[in-house]
Amino acid sequence: MRLGAIEAGGTKFICGIGDENGVVFERISIPTTTPEETIGQVVGFFRDKEISAMGIGSFGPVDLDKNSETYGYITSTPKPHWAQYDLVGEIQKHIHVPVAFDTDVNAAAFGELEWGAAKGLDSCIYMTVGTGIGVGAITESRLLHGLTHPEMGHILVRRHPEDHFEGSCPYHKDCLEGMAAGPALEKRWGQKGIELAGNEKVWEYQAHYLSQALVNYILILSPKKMVLGGGVMKQEQLFPLIRKKVLDTLNGYVQHPQLTEENIQDFIVPPGLGDNAGLCGAIALAKTLQQ
Ligand code: ADP
Ligand code: ZN
Q: To test the ligand 1 pocket, which listed residue (128, 192, 210, 228) has its Cβ within 8 A of the most ligand atoms?
């Protein structure tokens, strides 16, 4: 089986061909410039690949309502040229196969559940902390959707008492993304995340915000695994800091063997699929069309 997959991001589109076991045969990265240019290259890549279905995980917000006239569109993004863009429609004009479409983070959650860190479970969340913060969720084996789709990267968080940074979210200023995504780090501290590796205060603040988010997701969704990826999570020292703060904040209220000092390192984890979570997730989405 040859399945096409696209992880459509704000900086690059990763396109690949894989099979029903999540094995990736081929993978390319195309810069996200204008839709004409980028989609032209995407279509060129898939044209002679003889795929039978395609999965797309996209940056958003996106319209996932199959009854909507704008199903398959990227909707209100501030990214120039891409607002109200018919992503699925444009691709299907040229590549005549069924397409499964979801958010980039829902796709990554799906990939992690199928082949990665949450394999064998029926629920998980996948959070990316990168240029933005996005979270995908699966509960009772179903990808979580709603009126549109969850936007758990923009939840409100309590400030760190010493943090006077105004926040960098263009919509909410000091929401989670505005306080803890890569650009927020860079604006607050005047250096890129990777250059701040040795600054303890940076990661204490970071753990303060991210752990609050995870606690909220635990309280609302009760996921069986929490997978944390994206550029900022390459700072591995964040994991133990976040795990400790999650346990401190829950303060014993939610009782489960996973939520203990001994076991929490198996509950809050990096992606099992590494940087391929999104692409493999898109393959897993394509696979649902073949069953
Ligand atoms: P995107 O979210 O655009 O798909 P990434 O997940 O790579 O891409 O996130 C990019 C953000 O993560 C940037 O703000 C960058 O500064 C930050 N970042 C990337 N690598 C690291 C790292 N090793 N340590 C800390 N921050 C990083
Ligand atoms: Zn926001």
A: 192
Instruction: Assess contact for 209 and 175: CB atoms under 8 A.
Output: no
Written in H, E and C, the secondary structure of 61-92 is CECCCCCCCCCCEECCCCCCCCCCEEHHHHHH
CA–centroid distance, 89 to ligand 1, in Å, is: 30
Q: CATH says 3-106+275-288 is which class?
A: alpha beta
Name the nearest CA neighbour of 76 among 153, 7, 171, 11: 171
Report the CATH number of the 120-270 domain. 3.30.420.40
Altogether, the residues listed in the chain come to a count of 291
Q: pLDDT digit string (tens) for 172-202? A: 999 999 999 999 999 999 999 999 999 999 9
- 3-106+275-288 against 120-270: fold identical: yes
For ligand 1, say whether the CB of 235 is within 6 Å of any of its atoms.
yes
Domain ranges of the chain: 3-106+275-288, 120-270
Give per-residue pLDDT as tens, 67-110. Answer: 999 999 999 988 899 999 999 999 999 999 999 999 999 999 99
| Identity of the amino acid at 110 | F
pTM reported for the whole predicted model? 0.96
